[in-house]
Amino acid sequence: MDVSLIIATRDRCQRLVRCLDAVRLITFDRSWELIIVDNGSIDETASVVRDFIDNANITATYAFEPRRGKSHALNTALGIARGQILAFTDDDCYPTPDILRRAWLAFDDPSVGYLMGRVLLHDPTDLPISIIDSAIPFTFPGRSFVPVGSVAGANMAFRKQVLLDIGGFDPLLGPGSSLNAAEDVDAVARASAMNWKGRYCPDVVVRHHHGRKASDAPRLLKSYGIGAGAYHMKLLLRGGELLWFARSVYQIRRRYRFGGGFIIWEWVGAARYTRVWLKQILHSWNIVLT
């Protein structure tokens, strides 16, 4: 199998229907499969997926992951995916018909371990957030710092072996976890730390139909700020990447474009991650001592 397209979803069956309508239109002349992971939904998600599988001319798998958190769902998909390349999008996104072909071509260089694609705003009345609309391609060299905002889990892909080598996605991060976000940029950073090169490919496109309005901004910035702080603190505590951590602190002034509240929540996220890290260290010491 060449490519696995992975979608994690939870209690958003109506949005998932529209997403799957776009997936039906994908054309790709190599072998591919669709994996939909239901992250503990209590709505009609299961029946929506079963109806899609019964009626679509696509090799598709439904998996149920009861542990709350997008990273758990993505790791479940990683465990069953057969593709050499794993492409990821979200249940509120509409991938273009050529997305898999263009993603596959981006891995023509064997030193490329991951890619990020373009995420456009579908509804112009939605808040312009959770998008990456640059039309300029660029490359992340191996062992390079990956800043917050440069990766969107709604449109990214990895070599499967790269994700296996880094241990998959961190369950402490991501929607549904205690630290809310940053599972995507964290995975990319760990791949970069292993000297994998990455690409931003603006011709690999999804449209994000998130439906959020201006009134949702404070809640979103809180979530993203906490995730960003956790990611930056993890660089220091887990990876020992002192230089990368220093760069993240230096770039705080750039992140002020999100507002001062974002920076405050970032420090909250850093403190929360430090607490989790210390608890795990103390737990491991207790096991060793006993």
Topology readout:
Elements: E1 3-9, H1 13-23, E2 32-38, H2 45-55, E3 60-64, H3 70-80, E4 85-90, E5 93-95, H4 99-106, E6 112-121, E7 138-140, E8 155-159, H5 160-166, H6 183-193, E9 197-208, H7 217-237, H8 242-250, H9 252-255, H10 260-289
Parallel strand pairs: 1-2, 1-4, 2-3, 6-9
Antiparallel strand pairs: 4-8, 5-9, 6-8, 7-9
Helix pairs in contact: 1-2, 7-8, 7-10
Question: How would you describe this protein?
Answer:
Strands 1, 2, 3, 4, 5, 6, 7, 8 and 9 form a nine-stranded mixed sheet that branches. The model has no long low-confidence stretch (mean pLDDT 94). The protein is an alpha/beta fold. It has ten helices and nine strands. Helix 1 (13-23) links the parallel strand 1 and strand 2 (32-38). The protein folds into two domains: 3-212, Spore Coat Polysaccharide Biosynthesis Protein SpsA, Chain A (Alpha-Beta Complex), CATH 3.90.550.10; 216-289.
Taking pLDDT < 50 over at least 5 consecutive residues as the criterion, the unreliable ranges are: none
- How many helices in DSSP terms? 10
Order of helices and strands: EHEHEHEEHEEEHHEHHHH
Helix content: 40-55%
Q: How many separate domains? A: 2
Mean pLDDT comes to 94
CATH architecture of the largest domain: Alpha-Beta Complex
